[in-house]
Amino acid sequence: MSEIFTFLSTAFPPTAQVTAFKGREAISRTYEFDIALKLTGLDVDVAAAVGARGTLNIDRGLGAPPFVFHGILASVELVNDYGAYGLYLARLVPTYWQLTLTRHSRIFTDASIPEIIEAILKEGGLGSNDYRISLWNEYPKLEHVCQYRESNYDFIARLAEREGMYFYFEQSEDREILVFTDTRSAHKKLAPKPVKYFPAPPGDVSAGESIRSFRCRSNALPGRVKVTDYNYLKPSLEVKGSAELSGKGDIVLYGENVKTPGEGKRYASIRAEEIAARQTVYTGVGPQFYLRPGYVFVLEEHPRLAFNSDYLTIEIEHLGNQSASGEDLEMLFGEEAPTKETYLATVHAIPHTTQFRAERKTPWPRIDGVVDGVVDGVAASPYAQIDAHGRYKVNIFFDEGDAIDGSRSTWVRMLQPHGGTVEGHHFPLRKGTEVHLVFLGGDPDRPVIVGAAHNAETPSVVTQGNYTKNLIRSGSNNFIEMEDLLGSTHVHIYAPKLNSSLHLGNGPYNFDLRTDGSGHIYTGVNFDVDVMANKTEDVHGTITETYVGPFTTTVTNPVTQTYNATLDETVEGAVTVRYNNILDLQVTSATTQVYKDIVNLQVVGANTEKFDATYDETVTGKMTGTYLASREENVTGEDKLTVTGTQNINVTSNATEKIGGVYDLTVVGDMKTSINGNQKIQTQGPVQWFKAAEFQGFTAGAKFDGHAGFALDWFAGAKISLFGGLKVDLTGGVSLALTLGPMLTITPVAMDMKATNLNALGLKLQAIGNKLEAKGLSLGVAGLHVNT
């Protein structure tokens, strides 16, 4: 009699007999078949057998194709050696099961879930003929997907469960094929004909392949699934989505790492479909082959017509017993020993019209506490490499990836001690800086930086050597230092650019602001400086001060200004200088003052100006000097006054001019002197008048006296006229000499000569009426007195 169940493997000889087996398959679960093998006369190295490929065949007879299960041996156990034969138990699993043996922590960036799954499958040794990814939906690239302390199998499983993907296996002639899908349209019929419902008692083989019992279980459902989250890039965006179910109550899921309302809607729909897939579940039992998870079968001949429909197998248990005794079965499988029937299948199915979604059974890892990493970047830059949101690329130390230069991490936010709409606090971190991270909600896909950490390569700026200091230092050596040492407390702010610094507190100066470069102080409104003691300004270059508004300087104590070089002051408008007390102005070198407009100098007290060298004053416009009190000018050297226009001197009181040396007055044009009162001219030496074409005599309103102590000489080249309105007296103390040239004419009302000696030499004197006419060249009068 041929065997119904056979097992072929390089780990066992062809003579190995299958006595019994038990297997379980399910969508999104790897299958396991525990196969009991009887081996006579030969020994098997169970250690070497592990990992070998094998195939379990179920011969359906009557020329039907075999029902096969391919895989590898996950374990091989020698259960008992009876001497005549040995009893072995081998576990057959798909190659994909080997991914459960791994354990990794790593980060995938800028990749979609299908891309991540395929990369891990290839890494796990599955070739392109070993798997197929048949997806209906599109999956975007994700910034950051983290595998943390979990197997590759669990990592793929939880990602697929979240996204609504699931997998099952095809069995070809020589291998199993892993199939990933996300739509019910991918499920095909496997059985060549419908499955017959035949409620026969156990052991009755008259019905052949059939389902003996077919149960239906319906479960209560919630009424709605809501998914909500928060997107820090769009804080005001309401990220939520929902999907309706037929029951009561809400399921609200927060923190699913969704970014938009559309994503929220999508994930809510997936979760709702996951729940709805278990609303109605059918369970069939019977000796029916060719039922596999992920495939559709058609039930017929059920008395309930509604049950005669298409079903998707989601899970199945296989039990086979070819020759095992009850004792061997219990030894091999314990209480779950296979049936005494040759073959029995228990199938769980849902209506084919229901979209299957795998339950989220795979645990999502949590990262509690902090993990460490290092700031990364695309370049070896001395500056922080951050994005428009101030985020960093970080290499997390548990990441096994070998990508470099910022490609191992997505952009990660850094928590700050202060923030707001415009306010904030951020010291950028450079590439290579160690950081510690936490994960929002423990989710490995949601890291944030909590702070920077010091190490031997990036040491602390405060150590045992400067433990009294509080320091903030940037990568370019800008720093703020706050010293707390008693007696030396200070704050020092420093920028290395041209040694610019501000020092406050202990030091040679309690306030010291300095730079080797230029400086600028700007205030939009008032700027007040109070100095309660001495103030010293040391300027080595040019000083330019511009005052757009009024400028007032008040000094309550003596002022000393020393200019060791030229002083040039330009005033475009009116200038008023008031000295309420003594002004002592000393200029030891040349001084030039240019006033292009009116100058008003008012001195209410004594004013002394001393010029020890040349003083040159040029006024191109009108100049008025008003002195409300005494004015005294002392010139110890030469004094020269040049007036190119009209000069008007108005003295409302007495005026005294004292000239210690020669006084030379030259008038190029007419000169007129008007004296409303007496005039007295006293000379100690000769008085000589210049010669001109004509000299007109004096006009005295009342009286004119002229006194000569020794001699008075009048010389007229042509004519001298004396006019007396009432009387003219010429009195010569010693003599009166008239030397006449061509003509001397004296026309008085009356003329008296007393005690006068008149000598006329070569002179003709004529008196015609009231006219005295004298012709000569010279009139000499000694001790002359003229009364008019």
Q: Can you describe this structure?
A:
The protein has 788 residues and is mainly beta. Among the domains are: 91 residues, Pnp Oxidase, Chain A, CATH 2.30.110; 90 residues, Baseplate protein-like domains (Phage tail protein beta-alpha-beta fold), CATH 3.55.50; 82 residues, Gp5 N-terminal domain (OB fold (Dihydrolipoamide Acetyltransferase, E2P)), CATH 2.40.50; 50 residues, no CATH class; 66 residues, no CATH class; 102 residues, no CATH class. It is 6% helix and 32% strand. The protein has 5 helices and 46 strands. Strands 1, 2, 3, 4, 5, 6, 12, 13, 17, 18, 19 and 20 form a 12-stranded mixed beta sheet that branches. Strands 21-22-23-25-24 form a 5-stranded mixed beta barrel. A 5-stranded antiparallel beta sheet has the order 26-27-28-29-30, with no helix packed on it. Helix 2 packs antiparallel against helix 3.
Q: Ends: how far apart?
A: 187 Å
Q: How large is the radius of gyration?
A: 63 Å
> What's the shape?
rod-shaped
Percent of residues in helices comes to: under 10%
User: Pairing-aware structural class of the strands and helices?
Assistant: mainly beta
Count helical runs. Answer: 5
In percent terms, what proportion of residues is strand? 25-35%
Question: Based on DSSP secondary structure assignment, what is the total number of beta strands?
Answer: 46
What is the typical, i.e. mean, pLDDT? 83
Biggest sheet architecture = 12 strands, mixed
Q: Note poorly predicted spans.
A: 738-788
Domain Gp5/Type VI secretion system Vgr protein OB-fold: 393-453
Protein name: Type VI secretion system tip protein VgrG
Pfam families: Phage_base_V (PF04717), Phage_GPD (PF05954)
InterPro entries: Gp5/Vgr_OB, T6SS_RhsGE_Vgr_subset, T6SS_Vgr_RhsGE, Vgr_OB-fold_dom_sf
